[in-house]
């Protein structure tokens, strides 16, 4: 099964949106838990597209990082490739049951669309 296809099973739902704004945690917490997701894709027309997801966690019980590299043949453009990367990252975040996960991407258009969607349908 195509790795990006797996992510389509978990499209962004109102209760499982990525938090693309800076984390807002209770200032009284001594050691807040933070999650950060970095997303990227490598697109060259006519070739297999590379997808990258890195999820980092830091909290009172230590820190960890997961890096996933996958490929897809479904991307038709650079923005489409970045969207596949976002969907893969979202799928992983959902499987890990992470909440308030900030995301970083080098694709301003994709982040702008996600922020706009989040502003229209806040969780």
TrEMBL record:
<protein>
    <recommendedName>
        <fullName>RNase H type-1 domain-containing protein</fullName>
    </recommendedName>
</protein>
């Amino acid at each position: 099964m195509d790795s990006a296809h797996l992510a389509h099973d978990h499209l962004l739902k109102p209760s499982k949106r990525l938090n693309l704004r800076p984390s807002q945690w209770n200032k009284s917490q001594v050691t807040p838990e933070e999650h950060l997701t970095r997303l990227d894709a490598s697109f060259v027309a006519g070739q297999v597209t590379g997808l990258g997801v890195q999820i980092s966690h830091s909290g009172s019980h230590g820190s960890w990082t997961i890096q996933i590299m996958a490929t897809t043949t479904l991307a038709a453009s650079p923005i489409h490739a970045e969207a596949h990367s976002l969907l893969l990252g979202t799928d992983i975040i959902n499987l890990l049951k992470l909440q308030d996960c900030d995301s970083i991407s080098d694709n301003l258009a994709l982040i702008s669309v996600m922020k706009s969607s989040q502003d229209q349908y806040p969780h």
